[in-house]
Structures
1.
Amino acid sequence: MSIQIVLNRNVLKRLGIFASGSGSNAVKIIEYFADSHEGRVVVVFCNNPKAGIIEKAAERNIPVEIFDRETFKTDAIIDKINSYELDWIVLAGFLWLMPKVIIEKFANRIVNIHPALLPDYGGKGMYGMNVHEAVWRDKLTETGITIHYVNDHYDSGDIIFQASCPVFPEDNPQEIQARVLQLEHKYFATIVEALLRLDQN
Ligand code: GAR
């Protein structure tokens, strides 16, 4: 009689990305996970039919699901998500509040990136350039990124990772944004991969 030990480690987790805009973080994640032993991006969900991410994902052979507010508020979005059998959801520049029904289904398996050091400069209306303009107006000397779990309030789930960068007196908001984006591109995919590695389900 032979005994087989089946290791679950090599099962690739299925990632869905939600994005609303140009999608530079989404692209980094798609490309990083194309070679990962932990997961693959299998779909991009997008609420903005004009978003740059739509073409970028399609160019990389990732299906894109475009949805409107009505779909997002109903079971239709859950049905769509179910059809991709997702294990994790990554918000990469996604600007709508996630509905409770999705958060409950993916408890501690939805992560977001925010372009500031939360809890500062978070909350409704604090996204993208609004954040960098506020940091610039307040003459901060440091800003950064936060990767956090998503709950049903804006930017207030448990923090997983933060990294900071300087803000120089001569910076304008665009320069701050560029420096922060570099940090996002450097860390987001590797932190998501570390979370997948820890997820033994
Ligand atoms: C990123 O800087 C991300 O942190 C931010 O939107 C940008 C999207 O850029 N997200 C938020 O502000 C969420 N509150 P991208 O489309 O190039 O990845």
Note: The pocket of glycinamide ribonucleotide is lined by residues 21-26, 92-93, 113-115, 127-128, 131, 181, 184 (CB under 6 Å).
2.
Amino acid sequence: MTPYGLDVVIPCYNEEDALPVTLPRILSYLETLQSDPRLALGHWRVILVDDGSRDRTWRIIEDHGRAGRVVGLKLSRNFGHQNAMLAGLTYASADAIITMDCDLQDDINTIEAMLLSYQDGFDLVLGVRSSRASDTFFKKGTARLYYSLLTLFGVNIIEDHADYRLMSQRALRALLAHHEVNLFLRGIIPAIGFKTSIIPYVRQARELGCSKYTLGKMLALAIDGITSFSVLPLRMIALFGIAVFLVSSVTGLWVLVERFVHSATVVSGWASTMLPLLALGGLQILSIGILGEYIGKIYLETKRRPRFIVETTTGQTC
Ligand code: UDP
Ligand code: MG
């Protein structure tokens, strides 16, 4: 096979503890792969995106940028993991592109199998966690709940595939043709098609530094995942509206019959008044909240604001 180029895109946010250890590991691993004739790996680069870190992350990237293999992009502020990854992807020009995190929780040795799949003609090679043993009880539980919710809402997503994947250049072009501001890359991936293969790997616990995905960021990503790919919550509101309408029509009819046919004044008890009042009030507010969530998304999408802003770069960006 003729040699092909590889770009590895890695978003980094406040990673001064992890990066000095993991980056040399990544670089030397890629060098080893290049010396393996089976893989036919030609030119490769590592594109590191500093997602508005407040620590020494950018300094570390700049130091490596001088050495040749490393390209650095510094975003003007923290845009979030998905947008940082997108920023790196727009700079990726190689035949094959891999995205991964900088903490090496995702087994780096999987890259070899990814490249072999790429050589076999796969445009998308997805790393899928075969075990969640290293995750906390909370993370495991919320992940299961989330995947069941996505299935319920009809969102097509590959379970336990995060953002560790290889894309061919044409798959990347297809991905970049999606211009949504509310970015949920792992939801777009199954939608773009192409020949896809899956590679299982065991996810490790984070050894260096701490998780940069706060509960807030995780929740925002989870909501983006549902609202960007499913309108079922809106449809459920409509169905609920129809059900309430039917029930109230029947009740209304009953009240009219009682009043005019039986000449009775219906005196209902406290419970039968309060319970529907509270239940309907709560459900109405919840429904308005769901509507608001979608309207908010439309608002953000129509403004077409940039999804990331690059402040400066280092290394060979093209
Ligand atoms: N990250 C980022 N921007 C953010 C949060 C995280 O670029 O706002 C990066 C982070 O540096 C890491 C990757 O995204 O390389 C995944 O984050 P992390 O390992 O903290 O998440 P977890 O593995 O705990 O889900
Ligand atoms: Mg991590």
Note: Residues 101, 103, 105, 206, 211 surround magnesium ion (ligand 2) (CB under 6 Å).
